[in-house]
Structures are given as C-alpha cells and as structure tokens.
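Closing statement on the iron/sulfur cluster sub-project.
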Amino acid sequence: MYDHNNGQVVIVGGGIAGLATAKLLSENNFHFAIVERSYKLGGHTKDWACMATDNCNRCHSCAVFDYEEFVASSPHGEIFLRHELFSVTRSTSGISSVGIRCIDSGAERELPVTALVLAVGFEPFDPIEKGFWGYGTFEGVMTLSDLNRLMRLDDLNTIRPGNGDPLNLAFFQCVGSRDKTIGADYCSQYCCAAAIRAALRTIHQYPDSKVTIFYIDLQIAGKTAQALMDKAQEKGVRFLQGVPGEIQPIQDGGLQVISEKDGQNVVERFDRIVLSIGQRPSSSAIAISGITEAPLNEFGFFQTRSQFDPVRSPLNGVYIAGSCSGPANIPDVAMNAGKVVSAIIKDIEQTI
Ligand code: SF4
Ligand code: SF4
C-alpha cells in the first residue's frame, strides 16, 4: 500500500466537515493541519441539541464530539485555533504551501501542503436581515437555532405559557431558502427533518404541546425519513401546506397567524413561532476565494468541478468539503468527507 506519511493536508475550517475530513485523513496515514478562526472546534453543529425522545432520533449532531475527540488525540495532526489563512504558494501541480496567521498575536507561519481542503461551512440565515416575520421585534418569534439553544440549556420551560395552558408552537419552513428575492433560490436540505425532530422533542418533554409545521414542500431524504414522518403523525404534529401571510402580536403575549385555506383567511393563535432558517455561504468564503482563487458559484458557495465531481475545486490541489459548496445535512457532510479523502488519494497516486 502506498505510504502517505509524507503528505500534509491543510484543512481550513474546524467544523464538522473539517473534523470528519481530518479523521479520515489520519486513518489513511496523512498528516493534517486544521486552521480554525474561532476559539473552538465543532462549528455550528455544537449549537444543536440532542433530539432523542424515547429513543435516538438520528439527528447525528453528537457525531461532532466523536470526531473532535479522535482528531484532538491524533498523532497525525496539528490544530491551529484562532488562525486564518492569508496566502498560498502555487506549484505546477497545485499548491505547495500556505501562510497562516494568528488572529490574536499576528504571528505568521508557513505550512507545507500536499492538498488544501476548504471546509469553512455556512452561515445561518439571519431573519433580521430582511425583517422576516418580526424576528427581533416580536418576542415570540425565534429561529430553530434559538429553540435548539433552549433545549440544549434545558430551558424549554421558559417558552411555555405561564398560566399552565399547553404550549402551542408553530414552525415556518423555508425561511431564507427557496427565495429568489434574497438570492437563495435553493433548498437548505436540513431544516425539514430538523424541525420535525424539534417538534418531537418538544412533545416528548411536554406531551400536551400542540405543534404545527407550515411548509411549502417537505424535503426529507434518507433511510430514516419515513420513520420520522410516521412518528410525527403518531404524536399529532400537524402539517399545513402553505406559508402564512402575516403575524401579529396579540395582547396576551401570543402571536396571531393569518394563513389561507381553500381561498379563505384562517386566523390562529400560537404561543411561539419558530423560523426554520436556511444555510447561507460562509462569511469567510469571499476572502478565502480571493486568497486561493478557488471560484464561487452564483450563490456564493465554493464551486466544484461538476455535480459528478462534487469535491474538487476547479483549481488543482484544492478540495471542497461539507456545506461550503452548498447546503448539506450532517450525514451528507460525513459522506462528502469520504469523497474528499478518496479524491486526494487518487490525485496523489496519479502523480507518483
Ligand atoms: S444522534 Fe442526535 S438524537 Fe441521537 S443521541 Fe446523538 S444527538 Fe441525540
Ligand atoms: S429542507 Fe425543507 S425547510 Fe429547508 S429549505 Fe428545504 S424544503 Fe425548505
């Protein structure tokens, strides 16, 4: 077997895509260096709560802790937290080294590179950006990330009505996705399943809760999709097709939602509205594209060679991992890491 011990792969981004890629590289005898801007590894996945009810609901977010533990203890790698990429040096076949800089001290160093993996993830859509659904103005409107935070901190009780009535929760799907007017005419892939799991988790904790999911089109794929839908039906989650037209705060602290059914306006009261926000390109994508010359697509995600070659950048020696090439859920990110490492090995073997 070819010995990869001389190769070092630099991974820009220490979220779940970077960690999954680093783990596989380490298992294949590569050295890896992770360059991460923040103080911690794990990215957005660490913000998600466990969605287990009476059993595991396969949200996959705990995978990030396994990846992190493996990578942090691997003898094959180095991790540079609070560092950023600032230069690349090219060779005839790709990239021979990169310059990285400590964000706090400004200290610079050069890392030799066999392959460069861009794994800078995504940015959650910020509904304040467009004043969507009164987010930031109406107290009862929150995002799916906000709801996860409450669940993670075991604070779900804080959104229950104070008078002992059951919690009446609504999810609005496709917020910041499938919307040409904001340059996001794509599906964010993860949010239908994430909303259903959060609905089930809420009902599990407070069985008298009522949950309604307003959707345009449910996009749930994978082996567990049917089981998830069956469980949602069994637990009484109500699915209503169509996006409500308006939200109004009402005096009792709730929110009045106006939607349409059979040509008639329907007015309903909810305690809280959860916006299932989509994935936008990483805030660092433009800067990294400028440094590496790896091109971006029309939406601002990193471009790959084709849909049949979804991990290689058009730029030789540069690979794209995880959701920085487009929205993805956690299982897709893990699968994509395998493709990245296979492509790196294949390309190296072709050059020796
Ligand atoms: S996969 Fe999700 S639901 Fe299952 S144990 Fe892990 S975090 Fe909890
Ligand atoms: S996964 Fe569902 S909620 Fe998310 S953008 Fe796609 S259709 Fe909309």
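The CA atoms of residues 147 and 274 lie 7 Å apart. With this model delivered, the sub-project is considered complete and its resources will be redirected to Aim 3.
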